[in-house]
Design a protein that fits this description.
Elements: H1 5-20, E1 31-36, H2 45-54, E2 55-60, E3 68-69, E4 73-74, E5 77-78, E6 87-89, H3 91-94, E7 99-111, E8 116-118, E9 124-126, E10 131-132
Antiparallel strand pairs: 1-7, 2-7, 3-6, 4-5, 5-10, 6-7, 8-9
Length: 134
């Protein structure tokens, strides 16, 4: 299945907006939960990794025993190692609809500046999602 960059772009913007609207000093501790009804890496780990690179947040354990750990690497992609704290739920394993959950804690209200990276063709671009291992 192909995921459009338009839909993942919307998810990235929505997650960053949720993080930005939360105060890290709030009574609830600045916690934001990101969840999708999808098991596609592009809608889940890519989006979470994107937020980790652009905001002062960290992932927290969900506090549930069921579910498979999220991917910190899959195929040629490498994500932040803390993505193992996220959870994936599969219809064939958990007898429910497939979905994904990540729990963030905001550490600061300061927005990170994304790093500039260079693609294998030498072109510059803003730090992307899921660094590719050659």
């Amino acid at each position: 299945a192909v995921v459009s960059t338009q839909s993942t772009g919307a998810q990235k913007r929505l997650l960053l907006a949720a993080i930005d609207s939360c105060d890290h000093n709030s009574k609830t501790g600045g916690v934001v939960v990101y969840s999708t009804c999808s098991v596609m890496v592009q809608e889940n780990e890519w989006v979470v990794d994107y937020a980790l690179k652009r905001r002062n947040v960290k992932l927290l354990p969900l506090g549930v025993d069921i579910g498979k750990d999220g991917f910190s690497r899959i195929n040629k992609y490498r994500f932040d190692s803390s993505l193992s704290l996220t959870k994936r739920y599969y219809p064939h394993t958990h007898n429910m609809d497939g979905f994904f959950v990540a729990k963030f804690q905001k550490l600061s209200n300061i927005v990170k500046e994304p790093k500039e990276v260079f693609r294998s063709d030498g072109e510059s671009e803003e730090e992307g999602v899921g660094d590719v291992m050659e």
